[in-house]
From TrEMBL:
Gene Ontology CC: cytosol
Source species, domain of life: Bacteria
Family: Belongs to the methylamine corrinoid protein family.
Protein name: Corrinoid methyltransferase protein
SMART domains, A to Z: B12-binding_2 (SM01018)
Keyword Methyltransferase listed: yes
UniProt KW keywords: Cobalt, Metal-binding, Methyltransferase, Transferase
Species annotation: Rubellimicrobium mesophilum DSM 19309
Domain B12-binding: from-to ranges: 101-232
Domain B12-binding N-terminal residue range list: 7-101
An example Gene Ontology biological process: homocysteine metabolic process
Signal peptide positions on this chain: none
Bilayer-spanning residue ranges: none
Length: 233
């Protein structure tokens, strides 16, 4: 063993999270897996590991990608390392025993292959008691329509990370309107380049800044629908 090799389990929490930021940056999947297990063994909640260590580390990657310091291959490695950590956390986040509150179909829109944020939203929604049908990436309007018909969800979720793909959300919503089924679903949208104004402008029910907001918004919107439904009876 080299003298300078870092033993993750010997680092305190703060050092370990800092090391995870570095390891994520360097796309070191196995180190991220090991550190995720260590934090869980130390009593960290899955949610804290996710938000403080993994999402926090990805923010650094995102900033350096934006600034031209990192390029696509490096970012792909970082994304894979992040996904490895998320795979460990997923069953734990889904295991809260929360009662089933509703169903959501979610997918990243056509032309867009970013899926980390969408996966995170799916995980948190499952943890909050929603059944989630994940359509993956690069979804054309037909894919969404088919899934809505077969799955009959309460919520349609769409994710877009590119300014060039976010307008496609409006294509989907306009198609729902044309078919007279827009009001059958709660439409929630999210992704880094969006904002509330955009959400309103394209006719979504709400823009969700992050996964936690997505869960809260989904719960509130589903509860409101049920109340309105009960009132109408
Ligand atoms: Co891309 N990429 N990327 N990328 N990438 C961005 C988005 C970018 C902002 C980087 C930059 O320049 N600063 C930039 C977009 C610029 C723009 O549009 N103005 C960009 C670019 C340009 C590109 C390419 C075009 C690069 C190229 O090829 N030259 C290319 C496009 C490919 C395509 O889609 N057609 C590309 C490729 C890639 C990789 C493949 C390398 C990789 C994706 C890997 C993967 O996802 N499997 C990648 C990554 C990782 C990023 C950054 C660095 C990180 C995105 C991420 O995962 N964030 C990103 C920089 C950034 O966003 N700052 C960038 C972490 C994640 C947890 O956050 O996705 O925002 P986020 O999700 C949040 C919220 O937004 C919200 O909740 C989530 C959790 O809190 N949310 C929702 C998201 N979706 C939701 C849906 C909901 C609700 C909430 O529904 C209900």
């Amino acid at each position: 063993m080299a003298d300078d090799e870092i033993i993750l389990s010997e680092l305190d929490d703060e050092e370990l999270v800092a090391q995870m930021f570095d390891d994520l940056y360097d796309g070191l999947k196995e180190e991220i897996e090991e550190a995720t297990h260590i934090l869980l063994d130390r009593g960290w909640t899955p949610y804290d590991v996710l938000t403080k260590a993994l999402v926090g580390g990805m923010k650094v990657v995102g900033d350096d990608f934006r600034d031209g310091i990192l390029f696509v291959p490096e970012v792909l490695l970082a994304a894979n390392a992040m996904k490895a950590g998320m795979t460990i956390l997923k069953p734990l986040l889904a295991e809260t025993g929360a009662p089933r509150v509703g169903k959501m179909v979610i997918g990243t829109v056509k032309g867009d292959i970013h899926d980390i944020g969408k996966n995170l939203v799916s995980m948190m929604m499952e943890g909050a008691g929603f059944e989630v049908v994940d359509l993956g990436i690069n979804n054309a309007v037909e894919k969404y329509l088919d899934a809505l018909e077969t799955e009959k969800p309460d919520i349609l979720g769409m994710s877009a990370l590119l300014t060039t793909t976010m307008p496609y959300m409006k294509v989907v919503i306009d198609t729902l309107k044309e078919k007279g089924i827009r009001e059958d679903y709660i439409v929630l949208v999210g992704g880094a380049p969006l904002n509330e104004e955009f959400g309103r402008a394209i006719g979504a029910d709400a823009y969700c800044r992050d996964a936690a907001v997505a869960v809260e918004t989904a719960k509130a919107q589903v509860a409101r629908r049920h109340n309105v439904g009960a009132g109408a009876r």
